[in-house]
Amino acid sequence: MSAFQQLVRSNESGILTGWIHEMSSTTRRSDLMDDADLKQQAAEFLRLFTDAAQSGSDVQAQEFAATREFLKAIAKSRMEQGFSPVETAMFVLSLKQPVFNALKDALKANASELVTEIWLSGDLLDKLAMLTVDIAIVFREQTISRQQEEMLELSTPVVKLWDGVLALPLIGTLDSARTQVVMESLLTAIVETNSQVAIIDITGVPTVDTLVAQHLIKTITAARLMGADCYLSGIRPAIAQTIVHLGIDLIDVQTKAKLSDAFAVALQRLGKTVVSIKTSASHAPKGRE
Amino acid sequence: MDRIPILKFGDCLLVTIQVDMHDELAMSLQEDLTAQIAKYASRGVLIDISSLEIVDSFIGRMLANIAAMSRVLDAQTVLTGMQPAVAITLVELGMSLPGIKTALNIERGMELLKEYVKQEVDAEDVDDTES
């Protein structure tokens, strides 16, 4: 490693200039990052890299810890800024050209040593570039799993329609994992708000198969066990047909075509009616406002 | 051996389960309760399980049995304060306790029982809007 090491040390500013030139011609994203930041990052990396390269070419070694940390920070911030993993890797890979050039100038006379040094430094830079790709992938996976959780939370909101009336508008297909969240959030909300009636609205559920129906029945039974009435609403004609064709037994479940109908029944159950202000004298009960 | 206390409250019996149920305790409750219903000719039984956090199929069956026995002795059973986790467990075990009336808390449970027993007590707060 000595030749390569000494070379980088002695010619640091030259290599840095060459590197930045290389970067600006290949992967420069001036829309995402300004020159000063890039220069600073490049200089910092070159310093850490030459310090660490003394030890050998094992990037997992203790000597490379600082370099790895630095790359991790760079990869993360670049992913957040909108760089692609390839563009981040090119940050490291574009250092090859100036280093190779410098090696070529220094070891012109000795061809075999030149090849060895180029091989060693190239190998090392490749490994470091792979490291940034690795970090980028992990970062992206974390983002995806976080978004999945958020989607799960977002798609099962429990809303309070009235004192003692909860509604759960379901959107999307129900699978086992989602059903668990739906069930838990509804039952917890029933306890928290001390509600007597819960309405599960499946207007946003595109298909109801036997599994989904079974999940719904379970949720409704659990709510009943806790002492709350549970209605099912928003059943589209096509879904009604499917349910009957599949032979699903919804006898014990009170169902309504629209959320408003279920809400009217819920209010009735609580002994309340909605009265139009103008014709309040007639006391006409209304389901919808 | 500790026992679960059964309180007499007018025509009704009140049972609040405050400890984790084990099988023997459940059996003794079953015996005590049926004896008390017969003794006082009670019309309603309220069982509060709000502090019960773990149930198994045995406890579930015991609750169903108590309800069935009470019905034979002409008393209505209301189960109150079931925790979400307990409800989920019972449903997953396939026990929907069809014969039992349920309520969110003791207050609601008593209202249900009074409605069933039709005591004079609730004549005072008759709600006009009730249909």
Automatic annotation (TrEMBL), chain A:
Domain of life of the native organism: Bacteria
Regions crossing the membrane: none
Record's keyword terms, sorted: Phosphoprotein
Domain STAS: 155-266
InterPro entries: Bact_StressResp_Reg (IPR051932), RsbRD_N_dom (IPR025751), STAS_dom (IPR002645), STAS_dom_sf (IPR036513)
PANTHER family, alphabetized: RSBT ANTAGONIST PROTEIN RSBS-RELATED, RSBT CO-ANTAGONIST PROTEIN RSBRC
Name by which UniProt lists this protein: STAS domain-containing protein
Lineage: Bacteria, Pseudomonadati, Acidobacteriota, Terriglobia, Terriglobales
From TrEMBL, chain B:
Gene3D superfamilies (UniProt xref): STAS domain
Pfam family, one: STAS
InterPro entries: Bact_StressResp_Reg, STAS_dom, STAS_dom_sf
Domain STAS, residue spans: 2-113
Domain of life: Bacteria
Descriptive protein name: STAS domain-containing protein
CDD domains: STAS_RsbR_RsbS_like
Taxonomic source organism: Edaphobacter paludis
